[in-house]
Write a structure and sequence with these properties.
single chain, 245 residues, alpha/beta, Rossmann fold, 5-stranded parallel β-sheet, 11% strand
């Protein structure tokens, strides 16, 4: 008897460490991941290239959506007028309030688009790689936010209201440290050398003029800390390594 096709799950995918782990987790939970990638005017648009390449390499159905959140501004990731913080101590990351790399309403916008596409695809499961431990400060990465969005989503679509579907927002990384995420990903076979985390890439610093990670933004520092605490070699090429090599 032929096996039943796996159910699809929509995965918000940036090509970064967390969201790539998320793809593999969705697969391990017996879903067929569909990758939703956003190019929203972020200064580190190189992450979109990594996301596309990874989705194609994995043979995933995927869509890259163009949004212009630069017109909204208010974030160091979408405005050249604001600097990406560098070399911040871990204590400051966790206690200095909402950081300038917060993009106003980004997860709400992304999840709303995902909800619309999920309804069209007939998909009842959405995965998002938010984390409330290693990077506190983002208001749209909290469990109560996701619970509220899931409740709203189930009141807001024909898919749920008329067809009886129950939409679920999955956030399996929300209470994991970066080290725990990395160990989990490695156990599933994730190749982290193909992921991108840096908010402030250094273009032309690598061999052949390739972009490398700055090694000093919050995202790079948390990535480095995660690999160090996981006891796993960090495959990332950082600027100081590229310059010295």
């Amino acid at each position: 008897m032929p096996s039943q096709p796996r159910k699809k799950a929509l995965v918000l995918f940036s090509g970064g460490l967390d969201s790539t782990t998320l793809l593999w987790i969705a697969r391990s939970e017996d879903f067929e991941p569909v990758a939703l990638i956003f190019s929203y005017g972020q200064r580190h648009r190189i992450e979109v290239e990594h996301a596309r390449a990874l989705a194609e390499e994995m043979g995933l159905e995927h869509r890259a959506v163009e949004l212009d959140l630069r017109s909204v501004g208010g974030s160091a990731l979408t405005s050249e007028e604001l600097d990406v913080p560098r070399d911040r101590p871990e204590s400051e990351m966790g206690s200095a309030g909402i950081p300038p790399t917060y993009v106003p309403a980004r997860n709400t916008i992304f999840l709303s688009y995902a909800l619309a596409w999920a309804e069209v695809l007939g998909v009842a499961d959405i995965y998002i790689g938010v984390n409330a431990l290693d990077y506190s400060g983002y208001p749209d990465c909290r469990p109560e936010y996701l619970e509220a969005f899931e409740k709203m989503a189930n009141l807001a679509s024909r898919f749920t209201v008329e067809e009886g579907a129950r939409l679920s927002i999955h956030a399996p990384l929300i209470r994991k440290t970066k080290a725990e995420i990395i160990r989990w990903g490695v156990s599933l076979g994730v190749n982290y050398g193909k992921t991108w985390s840096c908010y402030d890439p250094r273009f032309g610093a690598g061999k052949g003029g390739k972009a490398v990670s700055c090694g000093r933004c919050d995202s790079c520092l948390l990535r480095r800390k995660g690999f160090r605490e996981a006891g796993i070699p960090d495959p990332t090429v950082y600027e100081e390594v590229a310059r010295s090599g």
